[in-house]
Amino acid sequence: MFTHTAKQIHNVILASQRVLLIPHQKPDGDALGAATAFAEWLESLGKEYTIFCATDFSTRLRYLPHTDKLSSDTRVWQKPIDAIVVFDSGDLVYAGVAEHIAKLSHRPLIINIDHHITNEKYGDYNLLLTGASSTSEILYHFFTITHVPINISMATSLLTGIITDTDTFTNAATSARAIHAAGELIAVGGNFDVIKTHIYKSTPLRAFELWGRIFSRLSKHEKLNLVYTYLTHKDLIEFGLTESDVEGMTNFLNSISDGHAGMILKELPDGKVKGSFRTTRDDVDVAKMAKHFGGGGHKKAAGFTIEKPIHEAIEHVLAELEKLFPHGNMLEPVLAE
Ligand SMILES: [Mn+2]
C-alpha cells in the first residue's frame, strides 16, 4: 500500500508543472526538513514551486536549504496550482491552509505526507506511516522506493526532521528504522554538525532564565498523576523572547520521573493557549487526551489549542481531565473517539 501510494505520488509530481509545498503553521524541524527536501527534488526536476507557510518559522531553522523562499503571501493561491503537498500535518486547519483551499475555484490534487496517528486522510493521495519517527523519515522511504537520488542538501533536511522529532533518538518515536534512515542520510553527506550547531547550541542565556521561571512553576496534580507548568505572554514580553525560544522545553517533560505525563500550557501573543502533553508510558495515550481538546498528535507526544486566558485554561484542562479519568492516573481509555 505504502509503496503503491509512493509510486502514484511520484507520477503525480512528474506530471505536474506548478506545485505548492505546505509545511504546517509554526513549522518545526520535521515539517521544514521534509518540505525543503521535497523542494530540492522539485528543483532538480525543473518544476515551478512555492513553499507557503501561514506563519513565520524559527530562525534557528534558517540553515535549511530553500527556507529563503518560504512565503506567507496569500497571493500564491491566486496562481494556477496543479498539486499541493502538505507535510507533517494531521488536518488542513492545523496546516493553516483549509480556508485557502476551500476558496479555490479549481481544486488541485492534494498530497498528504504525515506520521500523526490522528491524520484525517484529507488528501487525494495519503502517504501515511503512523509508526514512522517523522515525516522526514517517510520522505526518506519515499525517495528510496521511487529511486530518487538523495543529495547532500536533501540529506541534511531529512536528517534534521528525524533528529528533531526523535529528540535526538531519545523519545518514543525512535526506532531501528529511524536510526537506520539517519545513518544512511549521514552516509550520503547529511551534515550532522550543522544540525547540532543550529538546533542544540543556539539557545540564548535569556531563554534559559525564562526556562528557569517556567520550571519553578512546575506542579503535580496528585490524583491525575500529571506534572504541569505554564508560560504567559507577559513572560515573553518581559524577557524579550518569542515562543520559539522555549520550544525545546517541552521535551524536558519526558525527563521527569514523577507522574504519568507532563503538560505545558503556553499563552501566545494572539491570546490563545497552546497545550502540549508528553509521556513515556505505554499505557497513557496523550493523543486521545489532546483530541478531547480539539488537538491531536502521537500517543506519547500531542498538542492542542484553546481560547481562554491562561489561568482559566489551566483550570479548564485539569477539570476536564479529572472528569475523563474519574479514577485518576490518566490510564483508563474512557475518552470518546
Ligand atoms: Mn513530525
From TrEMBL:
<feature type="domain" description="DDH">
    <location>
        <begin position="19"/>
        <end position="162"/>
    </location>
</feature>
<dbReference type="InterPro" id="IPR051319">
    <property type="entry name" value="Oligoribo/pAp-PDE_c-di-AMP_PDE"/>
</dbReference>
<dbReference type="GO" id="GO:0003676">
    <property type="term" value="F:nucleic acid binding"/>
</dbReference>
<dbReference type="InterPro" id="IPR001667">
    <property type="entry name" value="DDH_dom"/>
</dbReference>
<dbReference type="Pfam" id="PF02272">
    <property type="entry name" value="DHHA1"/>
</dbReference>
<feature type="domain" description="DHHA1">
    <location>
        <begin position="226"/>
        <end position="324"/>
    </location>
</feature>
<dbReference type="InterPro" id="IPR003156">
    <property type="entry name" value="DHHA1_dom"/>
</dbReference>
<dbReference type="InterPro" id="IPR038763">
    <property type="entry name" value="DHH_sf"/>
</dbReference>
<protein>
    <recommendedName>
        <fullName>DDH domain-containing protein</fullName>
    </recommendedName>
</protein>
<dbReference type="Pfam" id="PF01368">
    <property type="entry name" value="DHH"/>
</dbReference>
